[in-house]
Design goal:
The protein is α+β, with helices and mostly antiparallel strands. It has one domain. It contains 2 helices and 3 strands, in the order H-E-E-E-H. The protein has a 3-stranded antiparallel beta sheet, with helices on one face. Helix 1 packs antiparallel against helix 2. The longest helix has 37 residues.
């Protein structure tokens, strides 16, 4: 493990942001999907073509793909959780790419005999 002083300012910033997001904000893996459906009740507007619209969370739960209904009063909250998760993933990718670069440079130096 490298000491923080050996990390670039960009990496230190990304690590700090990830830590803050994980510690301070709820997050959830998955994407929100709007679905329109027909309930099947006689005389309902949906039988005339105006379908019921609701949001679901598309995610994996216990190794299976799931569509989990999101109650209307939680839509904005769950959307914020998803945005937090996306930001965590983006920052983790940024950190990972930094180490990929270090790995590739190390391999290049070894091949050229400058290890």
């Amino acid at each position: 493990m490298r000491h923080r002083n050996e990390m670039s300012k960009k990496e230190r910033s990304a690590r700090s942001k990830v830590t803050k997001l994980i510690h301070d904000y709820p997050f959830i893996e998955g994407g929100m999907v709007k679905m329109a459906r027909v309930c099947g009740k006689d005389g309902c507007k949906c039988t005339k073509g105006e379908k019921h619209v609701s949001w679901y969370l598309a995610t994996k739960h216990e190794k299976k793909r799931k569509m989990i209904y999101i109650p209307a009063e939680m839509e904005k909250e769950v959307q914020a959780w998803g945005k937090t998760c996306k930001e965590i993933r983006r920052l983790m990718k940024e950190i990972s790419n930094n180490y990929l670069k270090i790995l590739m440079e190390s391999k290049k130096r070894k091949r050229s005999g400058n290890a």
